[in-house]
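Sample A.
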Amino acid sequence: MTTGGTSTAPYSSPTQADDGTILAVRGTVLVLLRADGTSIRTLPSILTDAPAGSGGVGPFDAAIFPDGQKLAYMVGYVAMTRPAPAS
């Protein structure tokens, strides 16, 4: 599909719309590609506005709708709290 991925920043979860548009995950961004693997655009990081005291992970399991007009993905947040010191 493309040679742009690397071992440290691979593409994952590719999904394809009926018109051939491909959506893939690369690190913390979503990338839209043409069927020949050339990039259409990179969508900015979706890991913003994380709840206080947490860190975002993802995106995971990207999916593009058959009409190519909508996409879906999952993200998660991990609590970054520390246990209280022992007294």
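Sample B, a different protein:
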Amino acid sequence: MTAKIPAGIADHFGDLEDPRVDRTKRHELLDILIIAICAVICGADDWVAVESFGQAKEEWLRTFLALPHGIPSHDTFGRVFARLDPEAFQNCFRSWVAAVFERTESQVVGLDGKTVRGSHDQALGKGAIHMVSAWATANELVLGQLKVDDKSNEITALPALLQLLSLEGCIVTIDAMGCQTAIAQEILDQEADYVLALKENQGSLYQDVVLAFCDALETGFRDVAHDYCETSNTGHGRVELRRYWTLFEPEYIDYFAREGHWPGLASVGMVEAERWEGSEVSRERRYFISSLSGEACPFARAVREHWGVENGLHWVLDVSFREDNCRVRKGHGAENLTVLRHIAVNLLKQEKSAKLGIRNKRLNAAWDNQYLLAVLTT
């Protein structure tokens, strides 16, 4: 293989252990992997489509791949990815991201889970897999992912994923599922900060924070250490105003931290969202705990940017990649195909020459070999 095509991929995925026995290795593992990556970039969503892509692009692929026995069959792609160790594959993915892409300091990293709905197999009693991903909002990058164990939930997967990432200087945001003291401690151990959403199921902590803000609002925050900022935006006939308050009054914070054994707790926050849509007005308040010092603007940025994992990743996977319609489910195939999609998302997001959305970038890559090459070598 020539060095001009994805050297980064070859460097970081080239040492993956091949799950096949020697007598069945008619195709090189790296060839299989790179064909699959290219195919997923260009719109393939199952192994039949990956083979079809390879057949259509064989002449171009031969300019940088060995292909000693031509293009592998869809059965070969299916068997290899069903048996490929997903943990090793994900380790290669994280190594590749850390080495190839620049990381913006102090950026928000949102952690959230997504069910791959089409991966269930009712006949075998196999439920759909659920993946937790870390999304760097400023760089628009998947930093890593981890499958939630079948008999577990995100609470156990989140700290395990955090342990695998390098998050120094980042602000980690998680929804209410991740509002756990062990998760807060893991984030602090990574020399990062946290902003964790609070919900009613947090019991007394949630009620105490709500009461603290109610008291502060009633007195106009008199004699209470606090900060405030607001944002507004309009569009599609809507006007939205978001107000952000933080409390860092030592008396409050010491009490919250002590009662809940919250490590590093430095402030609590409230967001009041007000939306006008015609004559209709709706209001909503949400509450958070944070290790941030208490300035409202960094808190507001973290809360806003957390939704990047939904809009920038999960929505793209659902709409542009049609992930939930994919019926790949044999062995580790669904989990490994999720990683292939994440590789494709990262490469497509980082390619900036085409001012197109992800769906049209994929079409462009499928039509134009030079553009596909640009995506691969981003």
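Observation for Sample B: Residues 100-313 form one domain.
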